[in-house]
Automatic annotation (TrEMBL):
Pfam families: adh_short_C2
InterPro entries: NAD(P)-bd_dom_sf, SDR, SDR_fam
Name of protein: 3-oxoacyl-ACP reductase
Organism of derivation: Pseudomonas plecoglossicida
Organism ancestry: Bacteria, Pseudomonadati, Pseudomonadota, Gammaproteobacteria, Pseudomonadales
UniProt similarity note: Belongs to the short-chain dehydrogenases/reductases (SDR) family.
Taxonomy, superkingdom: Bacteria
Length: 258
């Protein structure tokens, strides 16, 4: 299927590895020009080189730094001639016990996983509406729907973003101008973040990993490639009637009907 986004420009945050990289790769293969961001310059440049090799004909630009920093966000926006697609993504806050977290821990989590995406959205959606096309995809977490006790910082911050998007996506100025905003909620994907969470659970990591995998009806962890393909479809010309949604990708792990 031709997704109808060849020649568009996308900003993809936290794109040097994991799910962000999967999204950048999927968009690049559809002919989308990319401005990618990550905190580590060397890793980011390596990813950019891989994208250029895998997706000849597209332009790939890099902006290194913490996207929670206003100056990095400004540089990211300046590097993109026209933001048609925005993929918000950030590493989640550390796991732990809420009894050990102070005010600064909460503010840091909110800044990275709620306020920073909102700032980027604010900077781009009106221009998208004026041009009659825009796609915003926020990578949040399956924990928004099925909270994990040791991920309280993430549960709280990402749920805040989810509530904000639910209202904004339904503004007729945006939805009526072919601008969509959706959240992708990954379950257990084979990423560095998952490995960190499994280790934080304590005990035998190998046994914990096997038990977690066995509990998933698909009997495996997800991979970044399939996640990226889902993201690319949401960014496509065919997805203009999907907005304000929280789309769970978890191999059937969530047991509910809704």
């Amino acid at each position: 299927m031709d997704l109808g986004i060849t020649g568009r420009w996308a900003i993809v945050c936290a794109a040097s590895q994991g799910l962000g990289k999967g999204c950048a790769e999927a968009l690049g293969k559809e002919g989308v020009n990319l401005v990618i961001n990550a905190r580590t310059q060397a890793t980011l440049e390596q990813t950019a080189a891989e994208l250029r090799a895998a997706c000849p004909g597209i332009e790939v630009r890099t902006v290194a730094g913490d996207v929670a920093d206003a100056e990095v966000r400004q540089a990211l926006l300046a590097a993109c001639p026209q933001v048609d697609i925005l993929v918000n993504n950030a590493g989640g806050p550390p796991p732990g016990d809420f009894r050990d977290w102070g005010r600064e821990d909460w503010l840091k989590a909110l800044d990275a996983n709620m306020l920073t995406p909102i700032e980027l959205i604010k900077a781009v959606v009106d221009g998208m509406a004026e041009r009659g096309f825009g796609r915003v995809v926020n990578i949040t977490s399956g924990a928004v729907k099925a909270p994990i006790d040791i991920l309280g910082l993430s549960n709280g911050a990402r749920s805040g973003l989810t509530g904000f998007i639910a209202g904004l996506a339904r503004q007729q100025r945006l939805a009526g101008s072919n601008v969509t905003l959706n959240n992708l909620l990954p379950g257990a994907f084979d990423t560095a973040r998952l490995q960190k969470t499994l280790k934080a659970a304590g005990g035998d990591v190998q046994a914990t990993t096997q038990a977690r995998r066995k509990a998933i009806p698909a009997a495996r962890f997800g991979n970044a490639g399939e996640f990226g393909a889902y993201c690319a479809f949401l960014c496509s010309a065919h997805a203009g009637y999907i907005t304000g949604q929280n789309l769970l990708i978890d191999g059937g792990a969530f047991p509910g009907t809704f």
